Amino acid sequence: MARKRGTEPVTRGLEVQHCDLGQLSRFLGERIDAMVMARMKEAGLGDLRASHVRAMEQFGDRVHGAVDLAGHLGVSHARAWKVVHELAERGYIDFAPAPDERVRTVELSKRGLLAAAQIAALRAEVHGLIHARWGAGELASVRDSLAQALEGLGGRPGVRGAFVEARKVGPTFGPAVCAGGSSQSPMGSVPDMVPA
To answer: What does the H/E/C string look like for the chain?
Structure first.
C-alpha cells in the first residue's frame, strides 16, 4: 500500500553517529545548559529561566539600558524589557539612576549578584565533569578546532555562545558565554571548561 504524501514516519531523534558538527555542538551546549538549570533548581534558583540567566550574564558590575541589553542578547527591545521586568519582579535586578532620565538602566541587585556567583559555581561544576573525563589538553584542542571552524565560516563570537554572522542570522542557542576564553560576566570563564 502506498503512503500518502507527508505521512512518512517521523524520526524521534538523531543518533550521535549521524549528527554533523553543528548539531553535535548545539546538542552539547543544550545538554550543559540543561544540567546547569537542573542544578540551579536544586540550589533554590528554580524561578530563573535560561533567558534570565543569559541576561544576568550580560550585567557583571555594569549598568545597562534595555537597548544595550537587547543588542547583547540578540533579541528585540520588547523581549529584553520583558526579561528585565521578570528579573526585577523576582528581585534579581534593580533599576539604577541614569544620567539621561529618558533612559531606564538596570543592574544586578545583591540577590542577583549572589545568584550569579552561585550559577557560576554550578556551571563550573558541570564543566568540571567534562574536564575530569577528557582532560585539559584534549578539551583545549577540541575548543580551538571548533573556534577555527566557526571563524572560517565567517562567524564572530556571539553573545549566546555561538559564532554568528553580524545581524544576518537570527537568535542562536547554546551556552551563554562565548567560546573565546574569558568573559566579563559574573558567571566566570566557562568556555575553558576548567573548574574554578
So the answer is: CCCCCCCCCCCCCCCHHHCCHHHHHHHHHHHHHHHHHHHHHHCCCCCCCHHHHHHHHHHCCCCEEHHHHHHHHCCCHHHHHHHHHHHHHCCCEEEECCCCCCCCEEEECHHHHHHHHHHHHHHHHHHHHHHHHHHHHHHHHHHHHHHHHHHHCCCEECCCCCEECCCCCCCCCCCCCCCCCCCCCCCCCHHHCCCC
